[in-house]
Amino acid sequence: MWNWEYTLQILPELLRALKMTVMATAGGFALACAGGLVLALAARSRRKPLALAAKALTAFVRNTPLLVQVFFLYYSLPLIANISLSAFAVGIIGLGLHYSTYLSEVYRSGIEAVPKGQWEAATALNFSKPRTWFSIVLPQAIPPIVPIMGNYLIVMFKETPVLSAITLVELLLTAKNIASVSYRVFEPYTLVGILFLLISFPASLLVRRLEIRLNRQRGL
């Protein structure tokens, strides 16, 4: 059933698609990290309209499917706002927006874990709010949550096949296109699974090692 000659023939095309998949994941994760921090800070704002807006956006995005969100961005946004984006850009924005709502909760847990005395010390030293956040709070809040963020990065990587629905030629869609031409599904789909495993499994081990190392540094 397995044809090695055919496998070696289609492997370069799948590797090129893997590069697109990794790029979409990296871009989406960078956006999610930045967006998650913004949402976390906005949710803690003393300005109630801003805090309520951040919480409402988070709840809405988390309770709607990623597939629906990327469909909206790719197909509906050009009709509503006359904004047309490439499938790659929509993939990054869709992944970034969706997972920023989850990372905002991760940031929140890290921020709330900062001892109250650190806030009081910053106040006693007459630090401004930006300096308090970026010099005192965030440097202590972010390191403990890095492993959790790493887990979300792996989850995002495994979610990229959803983007094939908006014609982004990532790994799964490439395998589908190959199978539709050759009528051989065993090799391309098996290779897709292997390629995902070859990246996801080592990445999960690295995240686990990082978590153990950080726990040791914190004395846990």
Which keywords apply here?
single chain, 82% helix, amino-acid transport, transmembrane, Amino acid ABC transporter permease, membrane, cell membrane
Helix content: over 70%
Oligomer: single chain
Can you tell me the CATH architecture? Orthogonal Bundle
Rg calculated over all Cα atoms:
21 Å
* Main sheet makeup: none
The overall number of domains is 1
**CATH H-level homologous superfamily name:** MetI-like
Structural class: mainly alpha
Distance between the termini: 51 Å
- Give helix and strand order, one letter per element, not per position: HHHHHHHH
State the CATH class.
Mainly Alpha
DSSP E strands, number: 0
> pLDDT under 50 segments (min length 5)?
none
CATH topology: MetI-like fold
Tell me what portion of residues adopts beta-strand conformation: under 5%
What would you note in describing this structure?
There is one protein chain. The chain has 220 residues and is mainly α. It has one domain: Orthogonal Bundle (MetI-like fold). The chain has eight helices and no strands. The chain has helices spanning 4-43, 48-62, 66-81, 87-112, 116-124, 129-159, 171-182, 186-217. It is flat, with a radius of gyration of 21 Å. It starts with a helix and ends with a helix. The mean pLDDT is 92.
What is the compact description of this entry?
The protein has 220 residues and is mainly alpha-helical. The protein has one domain: Orthogonal Bundle (MetI-like fold), CATH 1.10.3720. 82% of the residues lie in helices and 0% in strands.
Protein topology:
Elements: H1 4-43, H2 48-62, H3 66-81, H4 87-112, H5 116-124, H6 129-159, H7 171-182, H8 186-217
Helix pairs in contact: 1-2, 1-4, 1-6, 1-7, 1-8, 2-4, 3-4, 4-6, 6-8
